[in-house]
Specification:
It is a single chain. α1 packs antiparallel against α2. The longest helix is centred in the N-terminal third of the chain and has 14 residues. Among the domains are: about 40 residues; about 45 residues. The chain has seven helices and two strands. The two termini are about 55 Å apart.
């Protein structure tokens, strides 16, 4: 979730300092009462209302590199994640893991669709819709009405 704007934070704190009750201010601005307390505590501690930095390491493939990655994906859309990592290391000189590449591709909104020319997997749906269920289904139902293999007697 993104942080509220500095303007909204300042208006909330100004309303509380003007003497309005926390629940009234919370309802007027559409925030939680705890948020108001957090803003007041932040102002006392730091003297400002700027949001704290988000935790975690910075992105290995940042937004400035997205156009290069998008071009790589368009050039070879059927490559595996491992192949994309190798291509990225060759082209950009930056080694990234398969997980990092997968998260970054997902962040771009890129989806993978196999080529139509690829062979089918060979598995086909068996049976017809509305066909009679097998006896295994009945046994499963029977098991639901038993306890540890014994009936409720």
């Amino acid at each position: 979730m993104r942080a509220y704007s500095l303007d909204l934070r300042a208006r909330i704190v100004a309303a509380v300092e003007a003497g309005e009750a926390h629940p009234v201010v919370a309802q007027r601005f559409g925030v939680a009462v705890a948020t108001i307390g957090n803003y007041l505590r932040l102002r006392r501690a730091t003297g400002g209302l700027a949001p704290r930095p988000r935790p975690g390491a910075p992105l290995e493939i940042g937004p400035a590199q997205y156009p290069a990655l998008r071009a790589q994906l368009q050039a070879d859309p059927d490559a595996t994640l491992a192949r994309h990592c190798a291509t990225w290391a060759e082209g950009q000189g930056q080694v990234v893991s398969v997980s990092t590449m997968g998260r970054t591709i997902a962040r771009l909104g890129w989806t993978h669709k196999k080529k139509r020319s690829a062979r089918s997997s060979g598995t086909r749906r068996r049976g017809r819709r509305g066909a009679k269920k097998s006896r295994a289904g009945r046994r499963t139902t029977w098991w639901c009405w038993t306890r540890w293999g014994r009936t409720w007697a």
